[in-house]
Amino acid sequence: MFTSRQLLEKLVAFDTTSRESNLALIDFVWRYLNDLGVSGELIHNAERSKANLYARLGPAGDGGVMLSGHSDVVPVEGQNWSVPPFVLTERDGKLYGRGTADMKGYIACMLAAVPHFLAQPLKQPLHLAISYDEEVGCLGVRTLLEALSQRPEKPSICLIGEPTELQPVLGHKGKLGVRCEVKGAACHSAYSPQGVNAIEYAAQLVHQLTAIGERLAQTEQHDTRFDPPFTTVQTGIIRGGTVLNIVPAECVFDFEVRTLPQHDAQAVAAEIDTFAQSELVPRMQAVAVDSAIRFYPISGYPGLLTDAQSDAARLIAYLTQSSDFSTVAFGTEGGLFHQAGIPSVICGPGSMAQGHKPDEFISIAQLDACDAMMQRLAAWMRQ
Ligand SMILES: [Zn+2]
After folding, report:
1. What pLDDT digit, counting tens, does each position of 314-372 carry?
2. Residue 244 burial (10 A CB sphere; 0-12, 13-18, 19+)
């Protein structure tokens, strides 16, 4: 039997930065579960360099609860750590190490509770899911959900253990990242009207995106459960041009839309595309026929907003002894679980105030409280 702290020490020691393989960690968890008599299933990526792990405890059949966490962590390069990031280090009641808060602490508690879940007659299935590549766009969980969708049985609640300091969280915004490529026509800048200036057309698109964002920020669109309480539109990267005396033929920029769960990011993408094709491209092509503006999705995940009256919300209220539901600003795999028909809520130990930062930590008190939450879940599943 391992305690959650011992397991956290093991998990932190695997460098599962998203660019690396997570197979050593998955193999460790696989053996741990096997030693307890639990057989899991691995769902690999196409290159077989990474895997999701899925396992079920208790009876087969529909329903039950899924505990879900991601195994990957964000890089430590360029961060000033005062402790070795892949060695669990205790200091002043806190356990330091990359991933302690986001979110190996939760995975450690979930694994430490397995013998306890096994020791009692579960009336419904308990599903465990550990994914890869969450930090780079919730990629791994998509193959996991695809595999799960082939099964007849479906969990009825998913508990995503992202760090919320064990507060019950019902939602977050969705995100869509889009790349725009503007293709104009080059010429000597002394004759600029004979060219199609890709930077200037890109600037018009960026300006239009700002206008769309301002419209979406109007008060009648607000949902005060979120911060900021409206859908935001933001351009983050722009590249174009070579030297000042050439009219630039290429400009590429990336923008993102962070939507309230009830809004559709695709609607914003469609609106800017319509503006581009109807207002700008005809003017560009009047000068150079092969001018074009193209948009490509580059990243994204759906938003999440679980009903406060749902069974999932009731369970998380019971587990946390609080119905003070809130939302978080960061994204999770919950939106994808929800989209796959598994109502999801977010609750995990530690705080995202420490996530992704140097000297990331989880307090021992939070780890203990998460162990206690697992005990309450076990009691609930006996019913
Ligand atoms: Zn996370």
Report:
1. 999 999 999 999 999 899 999 999 999 999 999 999 999 999 999 999 999 999 999 99
2. exposed
Q: Specify the pLDDT at position 382.
A: 86
Active-site amino acid positions: 72, 134
Query: Where do the domains of the chain lie, and which CATH numbers do they carry?
Result: 4-172+303-382 (3.40.630.10), 174-301 (3.30.70.360)
Give the pair of three-digit tokens for residue 329: 């600003």
> HSE-up of 104 (CA within 13 Å, CB side)?
33
* Å from CA of 162 to ligand 1 middle: 5
Give the Å distance between the CA of 237 and the centre of ligand 1: 24
Give the pLDDT of residue 204: 98
Instruction: Give the distance (Å) from ligand 1 centre to CA of residue 8.
Output: 15
CB 83 within 8 A of CB 89: yes
Determine the Cα–Cα distance for residues 191 and 246; give it in Å rounded to an integer: 9
Token pair of 91 as six digits: 């200091």
